[in-house]
Amino acid sequence: MPQPSSRLPIIRLLLATLVVFALAASSCSKQLPTAVTPPPTGGPDEFATQVVVLLAPGVSPDSVAIAYGATVHEFDSESGLAALLPASGQTAIELAALLALDPRVVTSEQNGALVPAETRQKSFAFDDGLGSLQTTVEQPAADSLGLAVAHGVSTGAGVKVAVLDTGIDPTHPMIAGRIAASADFLNPANTTATDLSDGVDNDGNGAIDEAYGHGTHVAGIVMLTAPDAQLLVARVLDADGRGDVLAVAAGIRWALRNGARVINLSLGTLKGSDAIQDALEEAENANVVVVASAGNWGSDTPEEYPARSSHALAVAATDVTGQPASFTSYGGFVALAAPGIAVRSAYPGSAYRLWSGTSMSAPFVAGTAALLVSLHPGWGSEEVMDRLALTARPLRGLSVPQREKMGDGMLDTRAALLVDQVAGPALARSAAPPGTRRSR
Questions:
Q1: Which of 69, 90, 391, 423 is the most buried (most CB within 10 A)?
Q2: Tens digits of per-residue pLDDT, 209-248?
Q3: Is residue 375 a contact partner of residue 419, using CB atoms and an 8 Å limit?
Q4: pTM of the predicted model as reported, rounded to 2 decimal places
């Protein structure tokens, strides 16, 4: 009779198989997902008492604050972004309105929180006991995208991909040696943007450190897709998934200064942001591809930002066969879909875990963009999206009107790269002329 220790791997395998089947079954509807009721998000937005301003070049935040009786709460000198606290008796909305009229101020707005979609809907990383580099590389999502074949054409060499998230585990085997630069926008005293946990429910939503490892997981998917790309890592979210407008806007501008060609934003807010929009416009003008997660609302409302920005490529989630995930957001703002159910990737402590959400779908697109930019250094977001749209696979189980709400289809990394091999350079350049993709 086998000893209990010898049966353990078999039991783990059976349990893991059941979990994966259960996760996959949640996406096998023959229609678009239905809306889900989000869990409580904790207390009021702690950032709402602040005003974020983008200052004109050379303007001192102190001089602006003094003029309005405000206090400088935070200042990022490299980007010219500052957070101000209003004077006693004045609201942040009132101060923001006054500052918007000041010629020294480029943008002015009430500060607000940004979080990963998984934090809102409480999607947690899962350890099935089978995690390894091999099972990560050989997982169904990688196979469905044809990553092994695509890597025969491009591995992303020479391209910097910025990941704005909770930070990373810099020693993880999938990440170590691939970091070009990192910065912590929550605690600038930290010399590296490291995934950190504190064991405290800081946002009061009933979960502790629910976003811990999120950035490591997202970065791992980028490296799985574009193994020779380099990472620019900006920590803009804490272990509970909380970040703010200033951190994200400053992180985008930092990424641009450090040579990013692709930026992944697996985070969002239900409000817009002038400061972030200004940074995203600068990114597009600099030929940088910005990819954002669409959200996990299981509906076409609400629309997350920056996913709905005209300067970002919004990514929805599917299973590996091309059927929409039950949780994915959808709508006219979505550009593309990619696997987002039980995706295996890096996790702090040299571990590997499964995670589900559009935050996992976005870095597959970001990594594929890096593969294309490595082949075509002059391409920007329009050219990259045109190629991805041209080679995307139709989604399964949906009518044509329903498909329109999921963008141009499911990402096909293999096809996107093979156009250059099969069609030849001349046809590859003309196969998807700039501006042909579906208007969003």
A1: 391
A2: 999 999 999 999 999 999 999 999 999 999 999 999 999 9
A3: no
A4: 0.89
* Residue 274: pLDDT band with limits 50, 70, 90: very high
Question: Strand 81-85 vs strand 230-235: parallel, antiparallel, or unpaired?
Answer: unpaired
Residue 12 pLDDT > 70: no
Q: Which CATH architecture has domain 47-111?
A: 2-Layer Sandwich (3.30)
Q: Are strands 243-244 and 113-114 parallel, antiparallel or unpaired?
A: antiparallel
Provide the residue ranges of all domains of the chain, joining segments of one domain with +: 47-111, 117-430
Q: Are strands 289-293 and 351-355 parallel, antiparallel or unpaired?
A: unpaired
- Are 299 and 33 contacting, i.e. CB atoms less than 8 angstroms apart? yes
The closest of 403, 402, 231, 406 to 314, measured between CA atoms, is 406
Fold of 117-430: Rossmann fold (3.40.50)
Residues labelled catalytic: 165, 214, 359
Instruction: Give the number of other Cβ atoms within 10 Å of residue 402's Cβ.
Output: 15
Q: What's the half-sphere exposure (Cβ side, CA atoms, 13 Å) at 397?
A: 15
Distances (CA, A) of 327 to 45, 160, 408: 24, 30, 19
CA-to-CA distance for 296 and 303, rounded, in angstroms? 10
Which pLDDT tens digit goes with each residue over 105-163? 999 999 999 999 999 988 999 999 999 999 999 999 999 999 999 999 999 999 999 99
Q: Is residue 328 within 8 Å of residue 35, measured between CB atoms?
A: no
Cα-only R_g, the chain: 21
